[in-house]
Structure prediction request, 485 residues.
Amino acid sequence: MSGGNYKLIQIGEREQEEREQLLPSDEPKTQCCTPTRFTISTLAGLVCLLTAVLFCLIRWPIRRPWCDNMGREGVMEPGPQDTLLGLISDIHLNLHPDECVGQSSSEYGVFGCDSTLGLLNLTLKDMVTKLPGSKSRVLVMLGDAAQHQPADTWDYKVTLDSISSVFKQFQHHFPSTPVFPTVGNNDLPAHNTVPDISWYTSLLKMFEPAITRGHKVTLPDNFREIFMYGGYYSALFADKFTVISLNTNLFSASVQDRSSQREYAVSHLQWLSDTLDAVTGRVVIIGHIPPTLSLYALYHNKVAKVSWRLEYFENFREIYRRHHEKVIAMLFGHEHQDTFVVERNSGVDMATFTFPSVSPIYSGQPSYGIAVIQNHGNERKLKDIFTYHTWLDYYTRLRIEPKFLTYRSFGQIFRLNELTPEGLFNKTKNIIEESDGMRSFMAVKGKVYQERAVPMISPHLYYCYTTNFNIAAFRSVYRKFWLRR
Prediction:
């Protein structure tokens, strides 16, 4: 599949001590209590104090999500005509958890290791309760079903086994619900490679039955041909909107074989442009690697790192600019965090949402999301996005089955009735300009980082991240804040 006549755009404290001398007194001292009473009182006090401390250590963190959101729990209230998108990303299912040190100590896994089958089932069981069968619903799998593997000992059979097991669990928990998957960078025959048709053929055998489950999805005639060539596809859901699943590995800055990458990336962009030209209704774009700076690299390694090669991002942005009115939302995974980026460029606002992981390998609480798409006649709007997570470490300490809780949504934090790029861009100014900006920032920070050990992320740094897709723009805005200090 060559790119027709599509032309690629080229881009590079006072310490103080007080001592009081007590003067001798001629008055006899009165013994207020006996040593025995003193000992008993002291011990009783210590027991009470210890009990209180233990209570706080065990119970308080579990209840904390409400406190972190100004005493209010995020509540999802979809309308009768709304479509619910269950968003699950970065499962990284490890079918042999004993291989990870300490993993076997818990059915639901531990931080620093990939997901267990128990954790995946727990997550899907909870998603079933949040996605009632009476609602119009779909599942969106945002990539990386497969476990992490060292690049030098990568076993493609392990990868396929992980992916196959994930899709079997989807079928078990959601037997009549369509699943829209996307290919993650760990769902490949080797790390950061460009697969050939044989690999995509293996994935197609799992993807196609999941997409068409429930008979609510219409596939284009060339669905198989397109997917086997590049691992991407489009599909119409219940005559409501089209899902466009990107294979973002083809745009990744980590791919080594740049020659093969370029051939497939150009074809992919041409296909995307042609597909958006042909779509008459609204679309939801999904993918794994977001076209943003890496928030993980920014706060872990203190570096600004791009996720896509600049030339492919620039062309993607141009395609989006021409078709932005058709796009309901753009949803990605990969970063293992719950955040968004929105940019204003040439008068057009573009926003992407990135979802946290099920896998706790990077010390994130296992999570999933639900997006609410509002349907009014022929109108389709992204009403809100909710994220549910479980406090895995605390529930493991209590030795009880983890429960999923939720923070307030982005819509509730920013007081938005719908999540449009324009609304999000204007509201990000709350972080640095409005009187309640710090409150907004702390609410967003708590949502994004999920109370894990976090570095000093300032409101200005976070603002720079959330409003810029590339390094040059990020550095330019950050430099302005730095010079004002």
